[in-house]
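Note to self: keep these together.
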Amino acid sequence: MTDTEITIIADRLAISDVMHRYATAIDMKDLGLLEQVFDETVESDFTTLGGKPWSGARADWIEIMRGTVGGLTATQHLTGNHVHRIDGDRAHLTAYLQAMHHLSGARGEPDYLIGGYYDVDLIRRAEGWRISRYSLTVTWQRGDRDVLRQAARRLKG
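Structure:
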């Protein structure tokens, strides 16, 4: 195996690890781990989930994420089928997603499950690969999306 092939394999593993840390951080509500995932500024587009395109500081995005999933009893984000395109210090990842959102004591159905894929742009920094832009395309959903709103209300108090 050549040095170039080893570098490509190492980059692919490191890029996939960013997505694994992202999913783990959300599910464990580990905001410190999320700081290791995003670049200092980040762009997001969750319009297929009802959100609006967003751009700003990492800390602000992490706070928005906390407000979205922090009130849920549990989440489970599974990513797979990672397809990598690497060009020097920039990369693009497409990753399939299934994400379960559960709210104990919800009015109505307590679960909301989505499926789809992320398109993720990453940049290599001294500390490793970081997400600079990403979007979620929801291709299917099941359950009650209202659990997200109910959880956000519970979090606020």
